[in-house]
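Researcher: We plan to redesign the surface later, but first we want a full-length starting point. Tokens attached.
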């Protein structure tokens, strides 16, 4: 069996921060079957800033009690995503810093309503590849809770 020392091990669920959006202490579910990561968002409103397309949306912090958190981010693109039930949906894509443990790297997130889902954040395979992570599905919350500030080595 081959091993790869440069890859960090994570479990099926991990604590993350999205410091560019001011979001701290989010529980994320790892979804190796999804290519793109997804962030729960509502009240999504596109707007223009300095000639560039941006999006304003409400994210939701907390697990039992949801606290609305207003965010703004530049739009990377609009992507058509096919959900697990086969329905296609156009979604805004943003890029922001993801902090996990003592590491951080930029990740693209599609914005979608996940209000009926247990986890408001899904981390897809592209985020795992970019973060040089491997998943042990028998584990959860392997990494320490991320630092509140931008971690060292953040891009």
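Model: Full-length starting sequence:
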């Amino acid at each position: 069996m081959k091993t790869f020392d440069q890859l960090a091990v994570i479990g099926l669920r991990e604590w993350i921060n999205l410091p560019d959006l001011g979001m701290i202490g989010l529980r994320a579910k790892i979804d190796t079957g999804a290519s793109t990561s997804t962030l729960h968002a509502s009240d999504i409103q596109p707007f223009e800033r300095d000639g560039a397309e941006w999006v304003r949306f409400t994210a939701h912090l907390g697990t039992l009690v949801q606290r609305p958190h207003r965010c703004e981010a530049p739009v990377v693109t609009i992507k058509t995503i096919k959900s697990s039930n086969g329905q296609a949906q156009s979604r805004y894509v943003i890029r922001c810093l993801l902090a996990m443990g003592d590491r951080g790297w930029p990740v693209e997130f599609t914005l979608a309503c996940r209000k009926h889902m247990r986890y408001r954040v899904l981390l897809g395979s592209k985020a795992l590849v970019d973060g040089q992570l491997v998943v042990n599905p028998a584990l959860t919350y392997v990494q320490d809770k991320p630092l509140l500030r931008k971690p060292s080595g953040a891009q």
